Here is the input.
Amino acid sequence: MAETQSHFLELADVCRDLGVNFLGVGFSPNWSLPAVPHMPKERCTIMKRYMPRIGARGLDMMFRTSTVQTNLDFSDENDMVKKFRVGLALQPIVTAMFASSPFTDGRPNGFKSMRSQIWRETDATRTGILPFVFDGDMGYERYVDYALDVPMYFIYRDGRYIDVSGASFRAFLNGQLPQLPNLRPTLQDWSDHLTTLFPEARLKRYIEMRGADSGSVDHIAALPALWAGLLYNDDALDAASDLIKGWTAQSIQELRNAVPRLALDARFGRTTVRDLAAELLNIASSGLARRAQIDAFGRDETIYLEPLREIVRSGRTIADRLLELYHGRWNGSVVPAYEELGLLAPYQGATGSSGKKPLGTRRKRHTRPLSIRPSQEDVAPTILPACG
Here is the structure.
């Protein structure tokens, strides 16, 4: 958490005079797609041309969604397979707990996580749950086979991106790219291609957990705490593996389909996602307690799960609370979110490296965000726009 807070202090320092703040939700609540400024990046330009050809919501994914992700290590191939299966199977439950995107174009959109729904309508060849991960022969080779068959976007040569969208990396290996005959890939080409795969959990030299909407600072810290508790203790990992035993790829996909709209209220067999989330938090809490990473105040990492415990106890996600505000004192408007929920608000009155007070300190009144203030600890998640 210390690193996360330091990051936001720096943001506050830079953004104060610019009048800029950041909103921790999973989807732009009122900006239309044409209203969103576009970064002039060649990579994004190629994706912008390709996306509408293969899915209805690819451009929304690129320019109007926001996520927080966390990356987890594995020790060997067997460890990777076990953690990857747990990560993919439990991703819909994490999506439900972090759901924070109930608005589109200034109005309720009927979903708790519109960000998650948009990924369902982006590009089926490179997104979603990967059924082969649950097969008995899952390993590095199976993932490579999958990646080879995901259509390419581009290659990078001589300082520029070259559009090869739709081409096969297998053909590239054989020097048979239609756009660039006889050219063969480098290791960097393969590394670049892996960054264009967008399943709910993604394998690189680590496992990237991709299912959560963006949120407030304490929710940003909760995500790596949750996954570390589940995967970084052998007993907890075994318990998580036992929890998903018997789940089929089809049942996980059905859960994935239901969660964007229903979040914690979605059903899975005879139980609800809310009940599964409570079980997940208990497993993660036990894993973090066994890790016994203690801060200066004698607290272990379980403190970072408290925002998620409150969501599950109450049955109310961030999306539910935003909708209550919209239908209540916000009087049918999403505009107050920008004043009340800015991510830099907790740093009001603090000073960054320049000695200036961050954004918000010059205002007469500033309403505190929906969530609790973060505590001090070393947690380092990644906050990502969809097309950075």
Remarks:
- Confidence is low (pLDDT under 50) at residues 351-385.
- The chain has 15 helices and twelve strands.
- Residues 151-196 form one domain.
